# Entry
Amino acid sequence: LGAFGVLVAACTSEPPSLPAVESTITAAPTSTLVPAPPTIAPTAAPAPPVPSSTPAASGALVQAALGNLSKTLHPYPDSASYTQPWIDAAAMIWGGADGGGALLAFDWDKLEYRPAMATSMPRVSADGKTFTFTLRDDLKWSDGSPVMLEDFQFAYDQASREDNRYVQLDLLQDIASLRTPDANTIEIELKDAKPRDVALGLVNIISPVPKSRWNGRSWTDTAANPEILNPSVVLGPFKVQDFRLAEQAVFVSLDTYYAGKARVPRVEILANQQPAVAYESLKSGRANWVHALPPAQYQEAKANPDVDVKEWTAANASYRTVEFNMTRPFLSDKRVRQALAYAVSRSDLIDVAEQGLAVPQYSFVQPTNSRWVNGGVDKYDLDLARARALLTDAGFLLKDGQLISKDGAAVKLQVLYPSSSAPRGKIAAYLQQQYKLLGIEVEVKSLDFNAYTEQVQNRHDFDISLAAYGGGSLDPDLGPRAQLVTNGQQNVTGYSNPQVDELFKQAANELDDAKRKQLYDQIQTLVNADLPSHYLYALKAIDAFSRKVQGVTPRKGDRLDYNDALLSWSVAE
Amino acid sequence: VGQSVVLLVVILAGVFFLVHLTPGGPEAVLVSNPRISADEVQRLRERFGLDQPLLVQYLRWVANAAQLDFGRSYFYSRPATDVILDRLSPTLQLGLLSYVVALLGVPLGIIAALQRGRAADTLVRLLTTLATAVPLWWLGLTCIVVLNSLTGWFPNGQGHGSPGEWLKYIIVPATVLGLSGLVTFARFVRSGVLDTLGEDYVRTARAKGLSSALVVQRHVLRNALLPVVTLLGGLLPTVLSGALVTEYVFAWPGVGLLFYEAASGRDYPVLLGVLTMTTFATILGTLLADVGYGLVDPRVRYA
# Structure
């Protein structure tokens, strides 16, 4: 094991005998920063109807999870703990911002905010900086005690402290103050006015923490504060019954949750299931839900009469791109990048790499993100003749099947991707074949995910990188911006266009949503013309259920259990 | 013992530097999250002590490791020792039971040797060849498909509650894990018994009129089983450090799975903690095998 470990850590990737598990670079997991409707109605629609208060008999929901469980159950995690498993667990016990655990919830049907713990949408001051919420009067902790305003104040005070290491501290620092002027009112003031989407996301970060349990205890030390790993009082629809980090988590439903009691009495999550094994668990009846079913099991699952496969393309779907390192002389020429794009057929690639489970994407906004996508950008569909013409125009010569540069050297490229992603390996092989048609010799290289990230993100030492983004927020300011502005944190291509920088800046400060949309349309057009990245396709989300699980309906988000949807699921005994 | 200590120190130094020189530290993935700023990543590096020169990190690690303090896991926010100890019990259970499975190779080897050229020998040789050729992960997956999905008899994961429930979960991964040991034992023992059967002192024993059973028991097995002692020592690291592939395939919550997770996420404290334990177990196993060999074979002691 020792020698093997050094190999794993020091050389390449997973051991060859271990089937690959996909890793992606994602935007911030969906938490609070999600877009919202164009205007704020002072008295918005009330929260949707709650599930039945007298649940029908139902069995347990058992999910075979492909990854780990969250390593903490802290309501305000640090950056090392802020993972998708944490978001999943937080949704169960704290409500989560996509459920009912914050003042507002993001509605993944309408792609806008709705009131959650607040009775209505906030009143907004004339200067657009102060948001006033009225708290519902039926909010309870799992021990039956009422949720108090001081629980919000306590959470805000603690999470704002730098030494408490909250992952979204930088966002909290955009908040000037949180006040509780009377028994059921919260006033949150921002330092600066922000676009509506961003502002609501900011004020919605704060969710309560039971002060009676946490006050006087460490916020970060698991040994000094057992609540961090095993919270005794929670807010959400479930509480923890059993939590074995490497093994399984068991949550049981509560009747104190203000949005109603879940119909399933118990949710079990089986951790670390190998993809093929997760599906086998579903077939055998050990589990009745597999989230993110691997494409390898898709066809069989579809043909299995006992399995109900849900597939949809989320508005915030994960998507794949071909990133060009524009600091490389060959790739610094826009015509070359365009030629490489014209050598690719998205539909072939979707069939080859994703078994048809994706939809073409033409800009940095997913095609299903109806809020911000610009459908009129250049598409760069397969056109080899045009690709060759562009290369000739750029001064390259195709001779004896090899592309020769002006200085007489044969053009060679390296395509880099993380070895944990089997589909990206197939994309790399496809590009190798297609670019060969242009006379370009391609070397394909894979690295383990951390080494890949280090080489691409930190050292920018690559020609072409196969990346995956997506998940999280719909707002271009909160994801793609970091990839496209000069020196942006995720800008690995070296792309720099002052006009794009300026437009992103304007869009971030534009309070009118219609004008923001125009700005982002313009940015998409500019970026597609410059083509620092060739956007390929958005992936379909696939979940598989036993037919016994009822009440599941895909929404526009990438998770089926957002928005307390899980409350209305049931499992036939 | 002195040599073992030196070996431990040298190996761990090599492992420490190899692990730390691997591209992509624990903070590499965080950079890809646009919500985590470069300042926050730097703060994390300082918190983890990764901003220090590598030599300083090493000396600090040695000083702490000497007191069995391997630092705090980056992702569990708990002492690495506690994280590893949490996983040790499932690994010990699996390892010890796989040891028992592996030891079944001893009687199989004896039977094969005594029945040389007959059906039983052919069967044992066929099975051991098959077991050697089949990859462990494939065998594990097949067992899961057949024994879990189709029959539902042996679910994967760890069983809790009654001994029957415990056995239902552990028996398949333990069998798969113990299979390579079983094959090794069967082959070594078969070969050892066959060699011994041809020795002069065995012929002499038979000529003295001893029954076949007594000849085998007193003169053949005692000598033929000597190499097995060495193999027993070699299995110790597996028992303590877990089996990565088996634990991964069967979602067994042991040290092997933890190690894989730590290696993938570059959780250096946990990674180095597991590697230290494994290195120690390997050296200890070898040492015990040497000592044990000397105890059972006086010729080694006299030499």
Notes: Confidence is low (pLDDT under 50) at residues 1-55 of chain A. The first strand of chain A starts at residue 61 and ends at 64. Chain A touches chain B through 68 residues (CB under 8 Å).
